[in-house]
Amino acid sequence: MKQPSSLDEETVRHQFDRKCKLALKGELVDYTRHIDYLSKHEVILSELSERELESLSVIDEYDSEYFDFQALGYDIRLKDMLLAEALNALTERKRDVIMLSYFQGLSDADIARKLNLDRSTVNEHRKRSLELLKQMMEERSNDNENKKKK
Predict the structure, then answer these.
(1) Do 46 and 84 share a structural domain?
(2) Quick one: CA dihedral 85, 88, 94, 100, positive or negative?
(3) Are residues 81 and 129 located together in one domain of the fold?
(4) Is 43 helix (H, G, I), strand (E, B) or coil?
């Protein structure tokens, strides 16, 4: 038979073990609740769509990155240097026709009225301008590629 003092120590030890187990179960419940909360309210960045990621970022833009043009009172800004250089190489009338047509969305008839030209003349200017732009941009991009290779 055990002595009364050792019986009390064993009882105390069992009570302590029980309290520790209850505390650990409580911590597990708290941790599980916390993880559930995080899964409902937080998203891993790698799981976001490209569109959602773009909405979270900001890209600084500076005036020096743009090329400003005017066509019959319309202010037009371009960011593409290659296109801006090609447009600068066109005559003013051809540049105006391209700008008004593609950047302001005006019809050939509207452009013709604003420039005091025939509609067919505007159409011809636009076609020729596009051919020139294509040719100039291809040449410049080929030149840039050749420079990079060297």
Answers:
(1) no
(2) positive
(3) yes
(4) coil
The pTM score is 0.56
Token pair listed for 54: 């773009």
Angle value at C-alpha 104, between 68 and 120, nearest 5 degrees: 115
CA distance 10 to 130: 96
Here the CATH number for the domain that contains residue 90 is: 1.10.10.10
* pLDDT per position as a tens digit, 5-49: 666 888 999 999 999 999 999 999 999 999 999 888 888 888 888
Residue 114's CB is within 10 A of a number of other CB atoms, namely 15
- Domain residues for the domain of 37 are 4-55
Q: Which residues contact 76 (CB under 8 A, 6 or more apart)?
A: 68, 69, 70, 99, 103, 104
Q: How far is CA 12 from CA 2, 26, 28, 146, in A?
A: 15, 21, 24, 86
Tokens of residue 129, six digits: 């301008």
Note whether 36 and 67 are same-domain residues: no
